[in-house]
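User:
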Amino acid sequence: MHKNARLTPKGREVLVQRVAAGQRVAEVAQALGISETTVRKWWRRHQSGEGLADRSSRPKTSPRRISSAQRSHIEALRRQRRSGRWIAEHTQLSPATVSRVLRRSGLSRWRDLEPQPPVHRYEYAAPGEMIHLDIKKLGRIGSPGHRVTGNRSQRHRGIGWDFVHVAIDDHSRVAVAAIADDERGRTAVAFLRQVVARYSAQGVTVRRVMTDNGSPYVSRVFAEACRALGLKHVRTRPYTPRTNGKAERFIQTALREWAYASCFDTSAQREQALGHWLHHYNWHRPHTAAGGLAPVSRLGLSRNNLLKLHT
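Assistant: Predicted structure:
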């Protein structure tokens, strides 16, 4: 339906009902603001059993339509790294037709022809062998935002950002997160010490950490902290976020299930909810990598330790 349409399917039903009730065609046309020809058209379609839906604008016959064999031939030539104009000349088709076929088949761009890199999945054998670190920046909350209210006119500019520092264990997927005022090197070091202490309290010795090449992680203070804690620092390849994919995936889960899951009036409410959600994520939420169990189930805790730590 376009914005100026006089008749919708419901309006056509009203038209048919009025004509069937014996109302004159001219009266129905005047009441609905349409022509008498339109009234007769829909009444005729209704009587013939065609229904009141719009007909397809597709022509009944397309004599110049290319065959499926020609389409397959175009795609095969494209996969041989042939240009669209070369294919058009070789197949005696117009460049527009070749371009349309390539676009519909997803082969119009050269990068679509490149083979996709193989998916390399890995998992360390024990908890603490690798901890993935990352930072997510979230705007501070002055009032419920447009995601909830739908009103983009009320904005709180200049109130700053919250920086969510996250850590997730490669083997167990047990996560730690904290909100800070910045993403400087010293703040990242403070969070790193908190992470090591938190895993240590659960009987996990951290041996390696993986980060991207962000400024806090390439700083001198972070390198010194890693040496002091006896940690091997592994950095991802530049512009390759999938190398640190477990942290990236955890951030997306946190945004969906925590940061954007409820309407928070203030940043303090959101920060308070983070602790409750982390407890749910680590202790109760089923995780595919843990065989449908909670991440904490892969720490190998005894019954007594489990009851002591589950607070």
